[in-house]
Amino acid sequence: MAGSPDRLSHMSAPCKPVQIISLSSTIYPHLIVKPLKITSFNPLIVTRDAENVIRLFEELGFERRHRKTGINDKDITDVRMRYTGKDGKVFHVDVTSVPVPKDITTIRMNVDNFDEAFEMLKAKGFVNAQGDRITETGASRSTMMVSPSGFSINLIHHIRK
Questions:
Q1: Strand-strand pairing, 77-84 and 90-97
Q2: If DSSP states are collapsed to H, E and C, what string results for the chain?
């Protein structure tokens, strides 16, 4: 019978506690992962039909917050939208107008250190969708990073002046 003294008779002494030894960052620095400081995290829709997508979110109660045009010296426009619920919870969605063949839904992730986040994602197998290019607008640095499985994160750092 399970748990009977006969089945446990081979144990002559109680088990000793095991001491957990932590990994040292000097011995295994590649195993230590410092969390990124993420300042915002929300969906981003990249579409050639931005006005209709924006209109849909306005009908859902979102408001246009700000608009950035001429991104990458091209006819690319980003609109940040915000919804505040009756309970005070706030949600954001960004809609970017780009002449893409098919809409892309990605994650917009603002960080406080672009280079650190970029290198961490590269180490995880992500590739820059722009090749070697980083978008620099004067107010921000950004690029879309694509994972080995195909999902993407639009990495951005706002530059405070």
A1: antiparallel
A2: CCCCCCCCCCCCCCCCCCCCCCCCCCCCHHHCCCCCCEEEEEEEEEECCHHHHHHHHHHCCCEEEEEEECHHHCCCEEEEEEEECCCCCEEEEEEEECCCCCCEEEEEEEECCHHHHHHHHHHCCCEECCCCCCEECCCEEEEEEECCCCCEEEEEEECCC
pTM over 0.90: no
pLDDT tens string 4-44: 444 444 444 454 444 444 444 444 455 455 678 899 999 99
Q: Helices in 43-160 by DSSP H: which ranges?
A: 50-59, 114-123
